[in-house]
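Holo prediction — magnesium ion.
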Amino acid sequence: MRKEIAEIIKGTEVDYTTTVKGWVRTFRNNQFIALNDGSTNHNLQVVVALNFLDDATLKRITTSACISATGKIVASQGKGQSVELIAESIEILGDSDAEQYPLQPKKHSLDFLREIAHLRFRTNTFGSVFRLRNALTFAIHQFFQERNFLNIHSPIISASDAEGAGEMFHVTNFDLEKLPLTESGEIDYTQDFFGRSANLTVSGQLEAELAAMAFTKVYTFGPTFRAENSNTTRHLAEFWMIEPEVAFNELKDNADLAEAMLKYVIKYAMDKHPDDITFLDARLAEEEKQKPTADRAEFGLIEKLNFLLENNFERITYTEAIQILLDSPAYKKNKFKYDVSWGIDMQSEHERYLVEKHFKKPVIVTDYPKDIKAFYMRQNEDGKTVAAMDILAPGIGEIIGGSQREERLDKLEQRMVEMNIPTKEMFWYLDTRRFGTCKHAGFGLGFERLVQFVTGMGNIRDVIPFPRTPKNCEF
Ligand code: 4AD
Ligand code: MG
């Protein structure tokens, strides 16, 4: 009977016989195998008695070889583990040539590990990151399911641009060498697979809104795609987004829901995988030590997460945020690279100042200028702002973007025309405003940014198994 290593290590039970299977991390003194099967970041020590295996077999126990070991679980004599397995038989399931194996048992840079992303799952760091990513996925579904939200699978192939930002990947089965042209020389999309131009979705929001007009509370959780040429530690071309949409909710309800969701899923992940969080906390502390004192984060990972759980998020308007920036020592001493004035789309340096220096906790900024936000946001009475909401998190910047939606047909249509959004093509979206419209609100949580926040990983490429970024589509 095979047992998982997590279960063996957690248990207090000893003196029973079992089988374990996994990948060798290290093999010391021809005697101590550190075995890992991914169920935990702890290795099980498998003890090989002297003269128990022939030389040929011993040589095959190399870093990353896959083995099966059967023997007795006993209280450990050594330091660093409470139980160990005294091997009675060992079978090599998959050999690995230690000379050829790119992942030597030593510290590798994250940059290097990204180049061997097919193997990095086998490191402590990525083991912890992806167990936490999994826990967060489950927690998100649980949070919404406990509250009677309906999960909607929004389409991945779409014909609309939900954000109106034009950052889309085309979907076509045209022979790109021989594009059919119309008489006036434009590409003739009527001959394309869908009979029209199509793209990968940038957001499931518009479809979620349609569903909310029937089910009241819905959420999507799916991949989204953006062809924005941003080579940053916060942007991916393919990322996962959670988009709840709730009928009858206004902006404040939307902010309450987002705050409750973040606290719930973070607590769930911390409770579920305390050892992974502890490991990543130490990893981050080590990484911070390499930085100049002025650049170091004020909080450790666990400290930061607990602080978030125990405190209310700060809530301010965009106008207040701009005033805080204008009054800041950083602004007065010309420390910002980009200028500050009412109407700007805040740069990451501004967002980080607000969150990390000024408030030192997550901040919900509402009521942005309408000219820097999407067409679907509800217009405020002042004629200048919309009922938008961004949540900014320490070390991350924008983690959530959302709004109350424009439910008034005339105002929505007028805004779409102003912003060159095709009203005719999007009749289906406008139909919800024609037939039984109501106030509603929703938001989008960038899943990888959440995983970054919880794991303390500095680069978004290190929290998704196979990152897609400009000029990179490996694996
Ligand atoms: O602010 P965004 O663009 O909002 C929307 O897409 C709305 N339709 C959401 C809604 O109201 N239903 O994106 C939402 C979030 C951002 O706050 C960010 O966390 C994440 O998605 N995000 C990205 N994450 C990784 N890589 C990118 N290129 C991202 N672009 C946005
Ligand atoms: Mg946004």
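READOUT: The mean pLDDT is 96.
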